[in-house]
TrEMBL record:
Belongs to the PPP phosphatase family. It holds the Pfam family Metallophos. GO terms for molecular function: metal ion binding; protein serine/threonine phosphatase activity. This is Serine/threonine-protein phosphatase. Its EC number is 3.1.3.16. It comes from Hanseniaspora valbyensis NRRL Y-1626.
Length: 462
């Protein structure tokens, strides 16, 4: 790589932006310089940012770089448009590195035009399991230790991101949700945010919690089945808004099939900005354009026509091995309700039913997407199936259930074994200087989905 910029002058940052918009990655030393300068900038921010309209709110992106470019195309480029991003910039998608670096350089170049909040994936522990860590290793494979160094530099910036924002003092924005330990916005400002996200406590609640429409009026908070954060209902939101003189809450953290989902008569809205999530969910996405507190527009858009960068020559893994959901895990089906109790007992006792716990299932049924067919992609992707033979490793599944599960995974797209090292799709968590945590990774099981996805508009994912 010829570029080596160790300064963060506007001129040098403009050169970086030109490269990043084109999908190129920056040298390790340049990233180190950018991250160090950005931390000096972010450390001055409060935990709750004070912003003003007009501004555009963006939800989860998850490494879908081309869709981030689409957001700028439809919403306007920085610095012409002000943006507030609600977190979850990395993991899942193919281009987490390109996505997060573009946003970080934009923040450093135009600090008053873009605000970045922290999501639950802005975490060392989570990024080691859901793709970003391995992506760094593979995209800097030619330099000894550069991949780990890049990952460390970027994740260190995560510790400096603010936890929430207020717009015109009347709209509250956060990645996840509310906490039983937080009654006022001012209490958020006293949290020590300069650290890895803990497993519990108010900081974890802000990035992990979810609204729940089915909680009764007299219920407050319930422990979330995610294993971190809480579920909260309408009464909690009403009390928080009244106490803090708020008119509305915007948050992200949950996939919405139509791009957004309003809760509690519009008092709280979930915003999702990653269309066709993980290149297979088929959902729409949205950005919220706020002109004033009482005037905002849901700008709904669909996936970009491009999945990959022109510089990529390898077969693309559009559906990572840690995101191979079955159809019945994606949507709650009332017709299957009769068999729920029996199936839930079997699935909870069988760890192999959770795709996020093991990657062994991905060896059984791989589907490949060739470059030529990707270029000719229309409304439907053509795939070439290739079934591999592998040994059954200590599994006691029912044969009919196993065959059914494998057939339902026909929409997943994987890569051949020789390409795994190049694209870094296998989950090989590293424990480098990470805080030991035990986040549950079984949220893709049938039992979890049936218990938590009763509203078809909102799907519950990490």
């Amino acid at each position: 790589m010829d570029l080596l910029l160790l300064t963060t002058s506007p001129e040098d940052l403009d050169i970086c932006l030109e490269l990043l918009y084109a999908g190129q990655i920056l040298p390790c030393l340049t990233i180190e310089s950018i991250c160090n300068s950005l931390k000096e900038l972010l450390i001055k921010d409060l935990n709750v940012l004070q912003l003003s309209t007009p501004i555009t709110i963006v939800g989860d992106i998850h490494g879908q770089f081309h869709d981030l470019l689409e957001i700028f195309n439809i919403g306007g480029y920085i610095p012409e448009t002000n943006y507030l991003f609600l977190g979850d910039y990395v993991d899942r998608g193919l281009y987490s590195l390109e996505t997060i670096m573009l946003l970080l350089v934009l923040k450093l170049r135009y600090p008053n035009r873009i605000a970045l909040l922290r999501g639950n994936h802005e975490s060392r522990q989570i990024t080691q399991s859901y793709g970003f860590y391995n992506e760094c290793l593979n995209k800097y494979a030619s330099g000894l230790g550069e991949g780990v160094a890049v990952w460390k530099h970027i994740t260190s910036v995560f510790d400096f991101l603010s936890l929430a924002a207020k717009i015109d003092n009347e709209i509250f924005c956060v990645h996840g949700g509310l906490s039983p330990n937080i009654q006022t916005v001012e209490q958020i400002n006293v949290i020590d945010r300069f650290k890895e996200i803990p497993h519990d406590g108010p900081m974890a609640d802000l990035v992990w919690s979810d609204p729940e429409n089915f909680l009764q009026m007299d219920e407050n908070f319930q422990v979330s089945t995610r294993g971190a954060g809480y579920l909260f209902g309408e009464e909690v939101v009403k009390r928080f808004c009244v106490k803090n003189k708020l008119k509305k809450i915007f948050r992200a953290h949950q996939l919405c099939q139509e791009g957004y989902q309003e809760h509690f008569n519009g008092l709280l809205t979930t915003v999702w900005s990653a269309p066709n999530y993980c290149y297979r969910c088929g959902n729409k996405a949205v950005i919220v354009e706020l002109n004033s507190v009482d005037s905002f527009y849901y700008n709904i858009f669909e996936e970009s026509h491009d999945y990959k960068l022109k510089t990529d020559t390898d077969v693309l893994m559009l559906n990572p091995s840690y995101f191979t959901l079955d159809e019945d895990e994606e949507y709650y089906d009332d017709e299957e309700e009769e068999d729920d109790d029996e199936e839930e007992e079997e699935e909870e006792d069988d760890d192999s039913d959770s795709d996020s716990d093991s990657d062994e299932d991905s060896d059984e049924d791989d589907i490949y997407l060739t470059n030529d067919k990707l270029k000719n992609k229309g409304t439907d992707l053509e795939v070439v199936s290739s079934t591999k033979s592998s040994k059954n490793k200590n599994k006691n599944k029912n044969n009919d259930k196993s065959n059914s599960a494998n057939s339902r995974r026909s929409s997943s797209i994987s890569i051949s074994a020789p390409d795994l090292n190049k694209l870094g799709v296998e989950v090989t968590p590293d424990t480098l200087e990470s805080t030991p945590m035990t986040f549950p990774l079984d949220v893709f099981s049938d039992a979890y989905q049936r218990a938590n996805s009763k509203e078809r508009q909102v799907e519950y994912f990490l």
